[in-house]
Design a protein that fits this description.
By secondary structure, the chain is mainly beta. It contains 5 helices and 31 strands. The longest helix has 6 residues.
Length: 479
């Protein structure tokens, strides 16, 4: 089984300014094919991905052959350069992660053309017991879509602030169905808008990479990790950077794999980190959704999870696998985005439950058996859960309400959950305050799924509360 699927996908391209500043900062990216052909000034382009859920669709992997900007004078620039990445648009579910970055010619652009390669859909097949995940190659109605921009995208070569594009792939319209079943046809439907660097969508919630250049000294303020396609990417840290998993800047080495959150630096292609989690110090990392825990109560001896992320890609664990982790009792537990002494009390071997988004770290050389992984680190991470508000459950004084989880995640989380809205929770996409939460409203809660080990009840600590109008069909099988 796999993580909660999505309704819309957003890719944000943030062209930062001044390629010379990029090289001086040590990012190390080379000029793309489109960049090399231009003798004019250059700007750098960031690609950030996020998504929203669609019931039963657990994966939509699409090869991006090119994303081509067209200027007011008719010149073009491919934002992917020579890269043709395959992106699983169902990966983030309400969070945002770095997809790509390249150099493109500076200019004013008024349209974008998205060219797609092969597309595959992973979906929950409820005709099987237990329900299984099937993956099929999709048929595209068109592989090229051109969208005019609502306002021109201006990429400058120096000075100013980065700008970008937000591209929404509406899966409710794109993934074709008949009588509740996926037909296998995808009609790519996009909405595109121009955004500024300081917009909410510019923040990177999760960028996972292996450390290639550790800090040069005890007083260093940066380190380098590998990017989405193997390119080096500089991470800046400061006194305000939060560290998870007992990590410090000085503890990073070439066996470290980190998850970084932060915002693009306004002057170059580096990332200013507000969060760094050490997800592995032994060179292996995998992440995904917990699908089964043994035993169902008490301290777990093992659990299964659907693999959505893995580093390196040369082990027995591959994307789309259901892997089994055997627990020894020596694992270190942590919670991404939570920094207090009670973390181990909230998440441990007795608090594992299906539906949680986790990551694990271990020895890459030892991960040779998909059904017998042994890891030394387990992290609980934020994820998006869509559902409906239980009538009369809202308590504004406590900042809580009950939610019935729906879609694929509802198969893993069949009981109602209590949602807690803390002071740091924000309201997005149609919700502005607690009073907007009406009986039966469809919502998405992006947060941490926790198990009360005393009574076994589930709670969601909300980080974001979204007011999407979800399309929630129940997919049964591929026709």
């Amino acid at each position: 089984m796999s993580p909660n699927p999505f309704l819309k996908v957003r890719i944000l391209f943030l062209p930062a300014l001044a390629a010379a500043a990029l090289l001086a900062a040590g990012c190390g990216s080379s000029l793309t094919a489109s960049s090399a052909a231009s003798s004019g000034p250059m700007g750098s382009a960031f690609v950030v991905g996020t998504d929203a859920p669609l019931a039963s669709v657990v994966s939509l992997q699409a090869q991006l052959k090119s994303i081509t900007l067209t200027s007011t004078t008719g010149t073009t620039a491919n934002m992917l350069g020579t890269n043709t990445p395959t992106v699983d648009f169902a990966r983030y579910n309400g969070l945002q992660g770095l997809v790509d970055m390249n150099d493109v010619p500076a200019g004013t652009y008024n349209s974008v053309t998205i060219n797609l390669g092969p597309v595959s859909i992973g979906y929950l097949d409820t005709t099987k017991t237990p329900p299984a995940i099937n993956t099929e190659t999709a048929t595209l109605t068109t592989s090229s879509v051109t969208i005019p921009l609502n306002k021109p995208l201006v990429i400058a070569a120096s000075g100013g602030q980065p700008v970008g594009l937000r591209i929404d792939l509406d899966l409710a319209q794109s993934v074709q169905t008949s009588n509740g079943a996926i037909t296998g046809t995808v009609d790519p439907t996009f909405d595109v808008t121009t955004v500024a660097r300081t917009d909410q969508g510019a923040h990177i919630d999760e960028f996972v990479g292996a450390v290639t250049t550790p800090p040069s000294s005890a007083t260093a303020t940066s380190f380098v990790i590998t990017g989405p396609h193997g390119e080096p990417f500089t991470i800046n840290v400061s006194s305000s950077t939060q560290w998870d998993g007992g990590a410090t800047l000085a503890s990073l080495n070439t066996n470290s794999i980190v998850a970084v959150a932060g915002q693009f630096d306004p002057a170059d292609q580096t990332l200013d980190a507000d969060e760094v989690a050490l997800v592995s110090d032994t060179a292996f990392y995998a992440g995904g959704l917990v699908t089964y825990v043994t035993p169902s109560s008490g301290a777990a001896s093992s659990f299964d999870f659907y693999v959505r992320r893995v580093l390196p890609d040369s082990t027995a664990v591959q994307l789309g696998d259901i892997a089994q982790v055997n627990l020894t009792g020596n694992e270190k537990y942590g919670i991404y985005w939570m920094h207090n002494a009670f973390t181990n009390l909230l998440f441990n071997s007795s608090a594992l439950v299906p539906g949680q988004e986790i990551s694990v770290g271990g020895q890459a050389s030892a991960e040779t058996n998909l059904n017998a992984l042994t890891v030394d680190r387990i992290y609980l991470q934020n994820w998006g859960y869509n559902g409906t508000i239980v009538a009369g459950s809202q308590n504004s004084g406590q900042g809580t309400f009950q939610m019935q989880v729906t879609g694929f995640a509802g198969v893993l989380v069949p009981s109602t959950v209590t949602v807690y809205l803390g002071p740091s929770c924000d309201f997005r996409y149609g919700f502005g305050a607690f009073g907007d939460l009406s009986d039966g409203a469809k919502v998405r809660v992006v947060g941490l799924l926790l198990k009360n080990t005393t009574n076994g009840q589930l709670v969601l600590l909300a980080r974001h509360l979204d007011g999407f109008n979800f399309t929630d069909f129940s997919t049964t099988a591929w026709q």
